[in-house]
Amino acid sequence: MPEARIKTDICVVGAGHAGCEAALACARLGFDTTIFTVSVESIALMPCNPNIGGTSKGHLVRELDALGGEMGKNIDKTFIQSKMLNVSKGPAVHSLRAQADKADYTRSMRQVLENQENLTIKQGEVCEILTEEGADGKPVVCGVRIFTGTIYECKAVILCTGTYLKARCLCGESITYTGPNGLQAANHLTESLEKLGVKLRRFKTGTPARMDKRSLDFSKMEEQVGDEKIIPFSFSTNPADIQREQVSCYLTYTNEKTHEIIRGNLDRSPIYAGIIEGTGPRYCPSIEDKVVKFADKERHQVFIEPEGLYTNEMYVGGMSSSLPEDVQIAMYRTVPGMENCRIVRNAYAIEYDCLESGELTPSLEIKNVGNLFSAGQFNGSSGYEEAAAQGLIAGINACQMLKGKEPLILDRSEAYIGVLIDDLVTKDNREPYRMMTSRAEYRLLLRQDNADLRLRKFGHQVGLISDEQYNHVLEKEEQIAAEVARLKETKIGGNKEVQAFLEAHGSAALRTAASLAELICRPELDYDVLAEIDKDRQPLSEEVIEQVLINIKYEGYIERQLRQVEQFKKTEKRRIPADIDYDDISSLRLEARQKLKMFKPISIGQASRISGVSPADVSVLLIYLEQMNRKN
Amino acid sequence: MTDTIAAIATALSPSGIGIIRISGDEAFEVANRIFKAKSGKSILEMSSHTVHYGHIYDEKEIIDEVMVLLMKAPNSFTMEDTVEIDCHGGVYVMNRILQTVLKNGARLSEPGEFTKRAFLNGRIDLTKAEAIMDLIQSKNEAARKNSMTHLKGDLYRKIKALREDIIYEIAFIESALDDPEHISLDGFHERLFEKSLNIIAVIEKLLNSADNGRLIKEGINTVIVGKPNAGKSSFLNLLLGEDRAIVTDIAGTTRDTLEESVYLNGMTLNLIDTAGIRETEDVVEKIGVNKAKEALEKADLMVYIVDSSVSLDKSDREIIALLDMSKTIILLNKSDLDVVVSEEDIKKITGETADFLTISAKEKEGLEAFTILIKEKFFSGQISFDDEVTISSLRQKEALSSALHSMKMVQQSLEDDMPEDFYSIDLMNAYACLGEIIGEEVGEDLVNEIFSKFCMGK
Question: Which residue in A523, A619, A630 is closest to B116 by CB distance?
């Protein structure tokens, strides 16, 4: 049968948040890129919560933006409410979250893709990964075949299949073999991947119901408004351009009646009845789970969030469920403000195929197949932001590889993205992986406010960030350093004017001269207040001042983390050759050897993070590497 | 840059001389902080491969007179800057010096770490690599087993409980940070402050009891007191009898604190200020009340010898006032003579119970009962002696001290009114340190705790 053959450089399979970032990065880096989707309407679809960002996820979006990704820019264009979370806490845990107009978000991203040079959108299911034998006998990607039989010849493939692979949706007793939102599942690719020796497993996630806004009584709920001063996600967005009118979310609570109904119908939940085999995420428990696990909690919060400006659908956060529809209706109607609720879309759980732990390299390449990259939920993560971050890195690294350059691998001390990927690569995760600030051991350094200072250079190196954008960061860096130095060096003597100033602000008098930096650290004083006695001050931008103050106020803690990072970097730099034969190291304990063979860490640091590898095993590994080194 | 490690290089058993080895980039700086050369020169000004005479100080206190051998990289075993401190081989002295070194910037070496460094730095030839790998693995295995068997029971449970307390608080903070709209931190400061006070109290108690372990391996610091002619000298001779080896005898050196160790049925007693007893028969009189107090402060065991043939008088009251009765054994000596002092007479002065024993040092009677009493007093009859345990226990003590330090940092952050996310930094350190003691890693503990104890959003 004659088949169409089309040549392209890189094929991106799937156009969700990972796929979009991957495809845009590849196209922007000059490669002819084709992105495949089962439905063009589902590009950058948000099938679950209607927001971008949140704790730690907001960090990811900012980092993505600093590296040259699109998500931050797109949410800046399409948000309908914005909030900086945790502002009463330390700067490291401030996190931006924005409610999106879902339809607008999708449309806007689609526009960006459609207008991107070098990028072609193709509707169609990719059914097979085509390979040829590589130099080392390992299969190497040479193209994909789509459902119609057409072959796309290419040099690299990036899998961003999300939750579509052999997807199965469960809503109570009713089961459909579809992807999210009733979209067509991708049922053929699994087989092709398994043939290539790629190990897959089954994960599960879920989403709550959507309600008709007109059926809800918001007067019985607490209104949640957005921030007065909106801070953009993207470092390229001018804050003045996005101070727009916002819509509200609403908060209400479940009660004992709700819980009674749930408990009385647990036998009809497919999870409790044992119908679902996939592993569900603990951080997104269904309302059944919450009621069972936290039996002593009298109520659970329910957040009602708008899905967009041009729809009446409201997302019911906190009450995802896979109970049958009649039970869902009954339980929702016990919640204040939801007594007469009408469900537009039912809550459902979805099962899908994704990559088994240990199959990925830190550059997001699949170990057993050359030039095959993957990103997003397919890699065992969860969340739009986690997906987008991986998509960008996979896209960058596919290009780096085709250019014969070193991959971009961010480490745990450089970015949340580094933590995310390192965890996906070295941990044996048993549920979809979600980012959390507590996963970042150097989080004081990895703030959302300094993502540009940390990462613009990498974006610039790979070619996604322009000279102009990069120079802006360099300039900012210089200004911060200069102002910190000036504040530390400028000594204020205890003259009459100063003492009077201190007294007026309820601050203790000076006995000896103090630096401005020391005065800033006094809780009753701050940078603005000190202007009065700080005569030489030059006007600086708000973003520079923010960095200066964080650097001064948290100096002790920051220095401690920097010292830890120094230690960390040492072991991170000790590379382990890819061809190491762990069976040759007889002193390794059996468990350590098995784990090392499974995960194939690239560095001593990474090896030390694999559970089951002890410090003594690491020492043994070091001796062995030195022995090899000297033999050569 | 490599961090600086230290360990006792000679066997930690009584011998004439002991060596503490320090290796790493800051070896000279660390040694310089605690060593004062007779010549007055700083270690940093001395040349490589020279030996210097002087004293080791723990802050202001002289610990030992020593010879220090300096070796600059790469001309040392590890090919790093190395300092060897040759000291008197008493178990107590060696451990004191090592602890002082650790306090001043070095960390305790991992099992086999000097050899590992020597190899990695190219000092040891290739054929030994296999043997070194085996050595590291087996030493670790031994240390791990040892600490495991050592830790069964009470201490293990206590550390476990502390860790559970700490991880719960971290998980609470982290849940609230992760899901600020579901979990509030209102009133948390006060609760955490209370909690950290409790945790600190428990750790401090454990540190004290960690000294119980120390007693086994490092010996019991013992002070013998009593009026002139009460029989201290003959009791000492009884202890040092010919059938028991004198472990260290460094009397006659210039130090003012003297140490002799005796083995007593598997236990070691480190006798402090025995010279004073020998020369004047009256330690209080000779070295003055302040010095006696100092000696008593270091003591794990106070042996108060009373001449039971002479009535109690003012100086007995003075001595009793200095003693901690919980650590004291009162020996009613001269039971071979007419007894005029009874237990009751002394109890009237002490006002509390103490351990009494009737002996006759002259007739060499009562030593067996004395030995049994110490065993009961300190070890509840159970004693084992093992080098490896010593090292692991020092390691455990170090970890416990770090945990204590971290918890104090938590309190500092609370007092400074830092934001909550800062508390978890030090809480996590404390958690990790406590984990080292019982051989448990941090791993996914926090994430598991968060999901199992706190109900998260969406």
Answer: A619
